[in-house]
Amino acid sequence: MKITVIGHICFDVIQLPNGTTSQSYGGIFFSIAALANLLNKNDTIIPVFGIGKIDHDNILNHLSKYSNIDTSAIFKFDGPTNKVHLCYSDNKKRIECSEHISEPISWSKIRRYLDGDMVFINMISGFDITLETLDFIRMRTRESKTEIYLDVHSLTLGIDSSNKRYYHPVDSWRHWLFMLHTVQMNETEAEHLTPELLNEKNLVKHILALNTKAVHITKGSRGSTVYLSQQKSISRTDVPAHEPEKAIDPTGCGDVYGAAYCAYYMKTKDILKSTEFANRVASHNAQLIGSSEIDTLSKFQINV
């Protein structure tokens, strides 16, 4: 199995409600490291992202321990790597500031790596790719029938002059969410995505009418809800989180959720079982601080 993962990498500086501070790789690193631990050595993960040239050798060394990651699509650029400051007042509320957000990943960097079983696009910064590039990806994967999983993530975030992120609607949201295998967002992103301020039920109805197969709304300690279009009706399945009372740090849980879903779905083609697996793995990630212990996800390695 082969999966291409597209999105920005960053350094996370995390301050938890108890005053604990940690620093570790974040952004797309959560997704690719989760996949590396969940898939086996015969699978291939191809991350496509850029990193500041001063950090390029370090990230390659960091990823070299994963035998199933192909680092050939990682490129370097002049200037610093994005740094994200996350200050939590509790496990649900945080202030996020981003410094040095990278330029969008160009179509020329992506087009050679779309012949696998799945493409996982994670809008880590919200500026990871342009809508035009997504259209190119859609056209290329339509020929190969490679399925696309899109995590909306920071597409709903703007940035002010002090680097603080804030929610804003996406005028072109229908264009972004058209003809995909699955769309993922958390309930706050869902609330802010549309200028029309559609509620969850109506938002999902509109997305599934765009020839997209499934919508995941993640809900933290309450698990997630997956919606599927079935002929002329929409099915809803609520999947609980596992051990939510043990949550310590929610950073990266959505990234891990999407990775776990994609990994299990590639092996089984079962949307509901993949959703249950994603919740189980993301719940474990919530018990970890930053990404420093992400290799403990290997206990969930998929053997089907």
Top keywords for this entry?
304 residues; alpha/beta; four-stranded mixed beta sheet; 9 helices; 30% helix
Would you mind describing this structure in some detail?
- The chain has helices at residues 28-38, 53-63, 107-110, 131-144, 173-176, 187-193, 200-208, 253-268, 271-285, and strands at 2-6, 9-15, 21-27, 44-48, 50-52, 75-77, 83-88, 94-99, 118-122, 147-151, 157-159, 165-167, 182-186, 214-218, 224-230, 233-239.
- The chain has 304 residues and is an alpha/beta fold.
- Strands 4-1-9-10-13-14-15-16 form an 8-stranded mixed sheet, sandwiched between helices. Strands 3-2-7-8 form a 4-stranded mixed sheet. A two-stranded parallel ribbon has the order 5-6.
- The model has no long low-confidence stretch (mean pLDDT 93).
Strand content: 25-35%
Order of helices and strands: EEEHEEHEEEHEHEEEHEHHEEEHH
Q: Mind describing the biggest β-sheet?
A: 8 strands, mixed
Helix content: 25-40%
Output the radius of gyration.
Answer: 18 Å
| Widest β-sheet, arrangement of strands | 4-1-9-10-13-14-15-16
Low-confidence stretches: none
- Overall shape: globular
- Structure annotation, total helices: 9
Overall SS class: alpha/beta
Overall mean pLDDT: 93
